[in-house]
Amino acid sequence: MNYGGSPSLLLASTDLSPVLEHNPAGRSPFLLTCDHYGRLIPSPLGDLGLPESELVRHIAWDIGIAGVATKLSDLLGAHLIAQPYSRLVIDCNRPPHVASSVPLISEATTIPGNEGLSREAAELRRTQIFDPYHRRIDDIIDERARQGMPTVLVSLHSFTPVYAGIARPWHIGTLYHHDKALPPLLLKHLRAEGDLVVGDNEPYAVSDETDYTIPVHGEQRGLMNSGIEIRQDLISDQAGETAWAERLACILGEIETTLRAEALI
User: Please, what sign has the CA dihedral across residues 25, 212, 180, 203?
Assistant: First the structure.
């Protein structure tokens, strides 16, 4: 295990861009985001002092959601904007000023590479990973508006089946705060599936202090929006990813029809 101190340049020339995009020409009204798509660590940071057994766990990324998001993007013809770097480097769904933005502990695991981090080092993570990702989302929303394209923001996540020793019964959850249009439709369609335990703001609820993507890009921009959380054991292989992408594509397609019929998009 190793981790760097406070490099002056966070992303080396061999490191991946902090913004991944799939299907950028997609014309769907749904704009998909995936804040915890990947688990990469910038090479100057080594492994943050963690063994690989920790870096493959849910603390580092949203297991399975990358496959779901990419497949869903293809099925809907929707633009996907995703973050390939681990939430342990900087959490791109947390306001930068909160302690969990660069976590010292995740669940019960201490993150050595985040201990004693200087203000400058934390700022480097924000300016080179967090900011480009969210700036791109902003730019795409602006561009869609200029083109007269409606935008419905869907933020895709996954959650661990057991957290801090407590089992979570939900198969999927809809996460929201102020939007009264999209979340009720999602809940209605998910419950109509008949074989799902559906969380209504479970296992998490959206707030300005615990979230960033939905409050900033959805609520502040006046867009219909919702987060979707899928339990990780259901999407732990390609078959599960495909099944859930297909299920969500059908549901979101039906919702699009409803929104258009009601002249909401």
Answer: positive
**Domain-embedded: residue 12:** no
Contact indicator for 12, 41 with CB cutoff of 8 Å: no
Is residue 103 assigned to a domain? yes
**Residue 80 burial (10 A CB sphere; 0-12, 13-18, 19+):** buried
- Domain containing 145 — which CATH number? 3.40.630.40
Q: What is the pLDDT of residue 182?
A: 98
Predicted local confidence at residue 8, as pLDDT: 64
Domain that holds residue 203: 20-261
Listed as ranges, residues in the chain with pLDDT below 70 are 1-8
- Classify burial at 178, counting beta carbons within 10 Å of its beta carbon; exposed 0-12, middle 13-18, buried 19 or more: exposed
| Total number of domains constituting the chain | 1
7 occurs within a structural domain: no
Within-domain flag for 52: yes
The confidence score (pLDDT) of residue 1 equals 61
Q: Could you tell me the two tokens for 201?
A: 């703001």
pTM for the complete prediction?
0.95
Instruction: Give pLDDT, residue 6.
Output: 52
Closest CA to 228 of 104, 64, 108, 89: 64
- Residue 191's pLDDT is what? 98
